[in-house]
Design goal:
Layout (H helix, E strand, L loop, with lengths): L5 H17 L9 H26 L17 H10 L3 H14 L8 H7 L10 H6 L1 H15 L25 H12 L5 H11 L4 H11 L8 H13 L17 H10 L6 H15 L3 H11 L12
Length: 311
């Protein structure tokens, strides 16, 4: 643990013990080493969430938004650049690409970069192009599938997206995902109008608006709990949408659900109850549901010894 984290670590420990004493027992952290491991995971998650805010204050190279640049292109940083330029629709789209492709441990952003940049053909599959011609995107992906999936250069999807495929013939492939995403946004409606409508229908409540958008994303193929949660929380962190996760959405979770069961010492409670308990716990910790969701997912992999996890 870094010295800068000592004060927050003590606050988190006090919050966990106060909840354990005042509300309900937390058997998962009864052992000191388990409690310390969870606190370190909470700290890691806090830093990951804050990192986006830090990125938004930095001067980023314009090359971060150029898919022709193999070394510097980064869809998340590109989204920040586009937002700063006032091109919010492109920022939404790049955030979607950031989540859909993820960063491969071996291939980095190659899939996102080569698809977005049309393999260096001189144009991009930007939002203006994709929203006007999703069928054309499928045809392009079909024509270039073998090049995109070549094995002499590392590629692949990120860890959260490891079961995805670029195969345009697959009903679960990127072409289908993109088509369904475009239909969800429903051009000529913009992303911003979509978010604004959700906020209006929920009386401006950031948590209810998040929930509204979360369930509306049933329409997006292959975007299950994790992808929706990652996408919508990132929109919030980037300042593209004034929304906030109201819960950890454990009913469709795996790792976070195991972590919650371990923390509360139960296999019997249903995910809805555990979700409510986590919301209750956050009134003591005040870190937000994204931090709780992320830290519990990583903690349950190694509950007695802190191990940093990426992806």
């Amino acid at each position: 643990m870094k010295p800068r984290d000592y004060a927050l670590a003590e606050q988190l420990k006090a919050g966990l013990y106060a909840y354990d004493l005042e509300r309900r027992p937390l058997p998962g952290i009864a052992a000191p080493e388990d409690c310390e491991a969870l606190i370190e995971q909470l700290l890691e998650s806090v830093h990951r969430v804050k990192f986006v805010a830090v990125l938004r204050t930095r001067e980023l190279s314009e090359l971060r938004a150029e898919p022709q640049n193999e070394l510097l292109f980064d869809p998340l940083k590109a989204a920040i650049l586009e937002k700063n330029r006032g091109n919010t629709e492109e920022a939404f789209w790049l955030t979607f690409l950031f989540v859909h492709f993820g960063k491969s441990s071996k291939g980095g952003w190659r899939y996102a970069r080569e698809v977005y940049g049309r393999l260096g053909e001189g144009t991009k599959w930007d939002w203006a192009s994709i929203s006007a011609d999703a069928d054309g995107f499928r045809k392009w992906l079909t024509a270039h599938f073998n090049i995109l999936t070549r094995t002499d250069v590392p590629g692949g999807f990120g860890n959260h997206r490891k079961y995805e495929t670029l195969d345009p013939a697959s009903p679960n492939g990127t072409a289908t995902v993109v088509e369904s995403y475009v239909k969800w946004v429903d051009p000529p409606r913009t992303h911003q109008q979509l978010v604004d409508q959700a906020c209006e229908e929920t009386d401006g409540d950031p948590k209810r608006a998040f929930d509204h958008l979360y369930y509306s994303m049933d329409a997006v193929a292959r975007f299950g709990r994790t992808a929706r949660f990652d996408y919508l929380t990132m929109l919030g962190k980037l300042g593209l949408a004034g929304i906030e996760a109201p819960s950890a959405y454990l009913s469709q979770a795996t790792g976070p659900l195991r972590g919650a069961k371990l923390l509360f010492g139960t296999e019997m409670e249903n995910p809805g109850t555990l979700d409510r308990w986590l919301v209750e716990l956050d009134t003591y910790l005040r870190v937000g549901m994204q931090v709780l969701e992320d830290s519990l997912c990583n903690w349950q992999k190694s509950p007695s010894k802190f191990k940093p996890f990426r992806g």
